[in-house]
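Researcher: Re-running this chain for the archive, since the previous output was lost when a drive failed. Same request as before.
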Amino acid sequence: MEQIREEPKTESHSLKGFVPLLGFTEGCGALLVILVTVWTYSYRDGFSWKSNPQLEFNWHPLLMIVGLVFLYANAMLIYRTQRNVRKRGLKLIHAGIMLFIVLLTVIALVAVFDSHNLASPAPIPNMYSLHSWVGLTTVILFCCQWVAGCVSFLFPGLQSPLRASYMPMHVYFGVAAFVGAIASCLLGLNEKAFFVLQDKYAAFVSEGMLINFIGLLLILFGGLSVYLVTQERYRRLPRPEDEVLLPGWHG
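Model: Regenerated C-alpha cells:
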C-alpha cells in the first residue's frame, strides 16, 4: 500500500487512526475472500461451467463478494487511500475498477441463471426469493451509478457546478448500493445454508459455522468500509491540480 503522506490538518480533518483502521479493514476483506474461496472449493466441490450447473453456481457467491463487496469497497476508498495521486488519474482508476466489477457481476449472474435453468432433473425457478430481488435491485443501482458517474465526472462538456451538485447524490447512492450488496450477500448465504444443509445446519456442522463466520465478516468489513468512506476527517483535501480532469479538458 502506498505510504499516506500527512496533509495539512484543520479542526475537521485529521488522519489520526486512519492507517491502522484501514489496515484492519483490508485484512477483514482479504480474509472474507479467502474464506469464501475455501467454502466454495472445499465444501461445495469447486467450480465448473455449463457442463456441471451445480458447480457453475459456485462462481456466483465468489464473484459477487470479490466484485460487489471487496473491490467495490476499495473503489470507494481509493480517494482516501491514494492521497498523493492526481485526482484525474484516480477518476479513471475508480471508473475502471467499477467497470471490472460490472464484468464480474455479469459472469456471476450468468452462472446463477445457468445453474437454475440447466438443473437436473427439472429447472429451478428464478427470481422468486428476497435475495434475488435485493440483489437485482442492487446490481441495477450500481450500473446506474457507474453510468451517471462517468457522465458527470469524466464527460468533458459538463460544467463544474453541475458536477459539484451531483457529488452528494453520487456518494449517497454509491454507499446505498454497497449496503444493498452486503444485505444481498447475507440473504444469499443464509438461503444457501438452509438449502444445502437443511437439518444439519442446526447441528452446528463445520460448513454452517463457516457460512455464519463469512456473514459476520461481511457485516464487519461493510461497516468499517462505510465508516471510512463517510468520515469527513478522513477525506482527501482538494489540490489545485484537481481542477483539471484530463489533459485538454476544462471543468
